[in-house]
Amino acid sequence: MSPILKKQIVAVLAGAITANAGLSEAIKINAPKLREDVLTSGKRLVEQPKPVEFGGPNFVDPFSGVAATPTDANDVSPNPVSVEGQESESEIIVKLAGEIPATGTILFGDKRILLAGKKKYKTGDVIIVKYKELEYDLVITDITATTFTVKHNQVTHSRAVK
């Protein structure tokens, strides 16, 4: 064995011994008195937060501007709440689907493809439509020979191909 190789092996072994000594120092556990701060912080992180109180009888929903009332989790209206002058999700998705310039469909193998001008979409594709200065992501959920269905926020709408 060459002397250079021997020096390299000795250096590697010395480094391993030094690293092992540092590791044993890190593994030592402090006495309980020294660990109190860490244990207190850990308990605070694990505790469940207290539920936030509902805003009371005069609470106004900041998103819709309507006076809100507490509801049971199982008592959910199937139709979204519509504020006068604001459109509901279902009204918006009808208008968004109308913005898609669908011109036809083709059958490619066993999959149906939606043609929209020069673009082609298949089931699962996302179409971004701009409406009133906002962008909406519509997911194509179904394509038939004469219709296609889009979905946005759990609301779906089927529209005929022009």
Q: How many domain units?
A: 2
Distance between the termini: 83 Å
Residues in helices, as a percent range: 25-40%
Instruction: Specify the number of helices.
Output: 3
- Given helix and strand content, the structural type is alpha+beta
* Strand and helix order: HHHEEEEEEE
Q: How would you name the oligomeric state of the polypeptide chains in this document?
A: single chain
Sheet of most strands: 4 strands, antiparallel
Brief sketch in words of this structure:
The chain is of the alpha+beta class and 162 residues long. Helices cover 31% and strands 27% of the residues.
Q: Descriptors for this entry?
A:
three-stranded antiparallel sheet; alpha+beta; 31% helix; 162 residues; 3 helices; four-stranded antiparallel sheet
